[in-house]
Design goal:
Blueprint: H1 10-13, H2 16-32, H3 36-52, H4 57-63, H5 65-79, H6 89-115, H7 118-128, H8 131-164, H9 172-200, H10 218-230
C-alpha cells in the first residue's frame, strides 16, 4: 500500500491543488480521447510523474497488483464468446482500450499519494469546496486515507492467523466466511477506538491546516491541468 513519504522532490514542493487538478484533467482527457496517441501521451505523463516522485513503476505494480491483475484479465474475458469463433477480437480490443485509460490515472495517483500528506490534501479539498461540505469531505477523505492501510493490515493478519491454525484444510467457503467475519469485527473495533480517540483529543471540524499558496512553479502544473480538463472542448 502506497503512503506518503516526506522528501524534497519537485512533486513534494508543488501545491496539492495543482496536483489534484492534473489528476482530474487526466481522467477527463483519457475518457474523452480514447485514441492511441492520447493514451500513449497519458501513459508517458504518468511515467513522468512517477519519475518526478522518485517512485518505481514496479513499486506501483506491487502495491496495486490486484487492480492490475483484474485489468489484465478484463480484455480476455470481454473477448470470450459462448460459441464459434469462441473468441472475438473487437470486444477484446475495446476492453483493452478501456483498460489502457486506467493505467496512467493509477500512475499519477500513486505519485500524488507518495508526495502529498493527508493534511495537505485535506487543506486543498477544503479550499476548493468551501463551508461544511468541504470540511465533511476533507475529514472523510483524511480518515479513509489513514484507515484503509490499517484495515488491509488487519485482513492480512486474520488471513495469516487462519493459515497458522490449519485453516487451509477447511473449505474455501468456510475460510472466506471466517476471514470476512473476523476482519469486520476488527474494523468495527478499530472504528470504536477511533471515535473515542477523536473525542478524547477534542476533534475539531476546523483545525489549523497548512497554509497553501501558489508559487511560480505551480502555474505550469495548473496550466496542464486546465488544458487536460478542457481538452474535450478543444
Amino acid at each position: 500500500m502506497l503512503t506518503y513519504q516526506s522528501g524534497a522532490t519537485a512533486l513534494h514542493r508543488l501545491d496539492p491543488r495543482g496536483k489534484l487538478l492534473v489528476q482530474f484533467g487526466l481522467a477527463i482527457a483519457v475518457v474523452a480521447h480514447p485514441t492511441v496517441p492520447w493514451l500513449v501521451g497519458a501513459t508517458l505523463l504518468g511515467l513522468a510523474a512517477l519519475a518526478a516522485a522518485r517512485l518505481s513503476p514496479l513499486t506501483v505494480f506491487r502495491a496495486y497488483w490486484v487492480v492490475f491483475a483484474v485489468l489484465a484479465v478484463a480484455p480476455l474475458l470481454a473477448g470470450v464468446a459462448l460459441g464459434p469463433p469462441w473468441f472475438r477480437v473487437d470486444p477484446a480490443l475495446d476492453s483493452l482500450r478501456a483498460v489502457a485509460r486506467v493505467v496512467p490515472i493509477l500512475f499519477v495517483s500513486a505519485a500524488y499519494l507518495r508526495t502529498t500528506s493527508v493534511r495537505e490534501t485535506r487543506a486543498a479539498v477544503q479550499r476548493v469546496v468551501p463551508g461544511k461540505p468541504g470540511q465533511l469531505l476533507g475529514v472523510g477523505m483524511a480518515l479513509v486515507v489513514r484507515l484503509f492501510p490499517l484495515v488491509l493490515s488487519d485482513v492480512r493478519e486474520v488471513r495469516d492467523a487462519i493459515r497458522a491454525r490449519g485453516g487451509e484444510r477447511r473449505s474455501p467457503w468456510e475460510r472466506a466466511r471466517v476471514l470476512v467475519v473476523r476482519s469486520l469485527d476488527r474494523t468495527l473495533a478499530r472504528s470504536d477506538r477511533l471515535g473515542v480517540a477523536l473525542r478524547a483529543r477534542c476533534f475539531a471540524w476546523n483545525p489549523t491546516l497548512p497554509a497553501l499558496a501558489f508559487e511560480g512553479r505551480d502555474y505550469p502544473v495548473l496550466a496542464l491541468g486546465l488544458a487536460l480538463t478542457l481538452s474535450p472542448l478543444l
